[in-house]
Amino acid sequence: MLPFDPGTVAITVSKHFRNTWMRKWGWDHHDLREALRASYRASRIGKGKWELYVRKKGEKKLVMVYDVASNELFVITGAEG
Predict the structure, then answer these.
(1) Whole-angstrom Cα distance, residue 53 to residue 34?
(2) For 8-58, what is each residue's pLDDT tens digit?
């Protein structure tokens, strides 16, 4: 399903995502990794861009980019609903 292992991938987040969505949801990096593990739907929306849908304290959508060469996941933004 996912091209990466949520337990071992390096995760970085954008400043916008950290200051708005992570703060609003009360998440830290540990909560983000748990949400990635428990995602119920993933869809590819570009060459390396993914949308993940998670249910953690409500329904949320995460938009991220995965780089295969460096095994790094960059979370761009999120949304509720």
Answers:
(1) 13
(2) 899 999 999 999 999 999 999 999 999 988 889 999 998 889 999 998 888
Fold of 10-80: YaeB-like fold (3.30.2310)
| Spans of all domains in the chain | 10-80
Q: Which burial class, exposed, middle or buried, applies to 10 when counting CB atoms under 10 A from its CB (0-12, 13-18, 19+)?
A: exposed
Please state whether the predicted TM-score (pTM) of the whole model is above 0.90. Answer: no
Residue labelled with tokens 């987040």: 13
Torsion of CA 36, 67, 22, 50, to 10 degrees: -60
